[in-house]
Amino acid sequence: MFKNSLITALISLAFGACFLFLACDDDDGNGPQALDNTALKLAPAGLPTLTEEDSLVYELWVVDTLDETTLTSLSKFFWDNEAYEFQNLFGFSRSDVFDLPQGKTTNDYNLMFVTFEPYPEDDREPSLSYVMAGPLVEDFPILRMEFDDSFAEVTGTYVLSSLSDYNLDAEDSAALEISGIWFAGVEAGGFNYSALSPGLVIPTLPQDANIIYEGWVFVQGWERPLSTGKFRNPNFRDLSNPYIEDQYAPLLPGEDFLISNGAPSWIRNNFPLVLVGERGDTASMVMITLEPYPDPDERNPFPLVLLSRNLPFLAGPSDRKISKAHTLIQMGNRYIELPTIEVTRTDREN
Questions:
Q1: Which of 4, 115, 133, 143 has minimal Cβ neighbours within 10 Å of its Cβ?
Q2: Cα torsion for 276, 277, 282, 284, to the nearest 10°?
């Protein structure tokens, strides 16, 4: 049976699009019959590469949201963004045209969407993690799939501070305050350890979804970004905090990079890390990404960036790195940079 939480979200998306286009149920016989409408031709823009080595595959679906029995998979596929080609499950190039079932046209459905699916598992139901969706509007030959527009409203702030050590230890060093980064809000009265609030306004994801959020930090000169942790609820802590002694962590996403246990060998000797750039450094970054779960590449960000912002850096020769601690920093929304798929109605190839 169609997963209820997914169908609810997609019905909402479809009805919103119907209202926008005023053309979801036009059966007057005009217009749609003139379209080639027995297949969908896909033209991705910025879609992340997935290959058979990633243990994930894309799957294209169509459905009439008023009748969930119409849910139909048009195919699973891999995508190579560098080569700009679709691949079948054997890793060979395949057509960008996806045939509808025999006897069906696009007028039999009102919604199309793409999901992440486990590979090589064969599940006939879509996962809870639809990547993009779009309405099948009868009078429009060229359509578009995109990410849920709720991500367009996502906001976030972060602050540099080492929250896991309580800052009560007599040996606590103020220098450690620039070794932690937390997605937190600071009240109007200024920074207060005991009065931090959640800093991310982002939809909470279902616990059994195949997608998850992950924070990342990168300092110029590092080999690659380091994860600050995966999470589904922006008002709770990450799934793990490996760089914190005794595993204490506040109820916020983030990380204190204080101990090197489990750190990559290339940076292990640099702990505690310093999360402030040198003078004029505009390459050091912090970001929130949307990741497949399970994650095909735990070491690197998946290229679906929801929020990002530079790390603070020294402004001049007299500036001190420690001065960057406890300052609230607003992140930028990157919804406009997320992938899209242009969809054209066309004829079946087979």
A1: 4
A2: -70
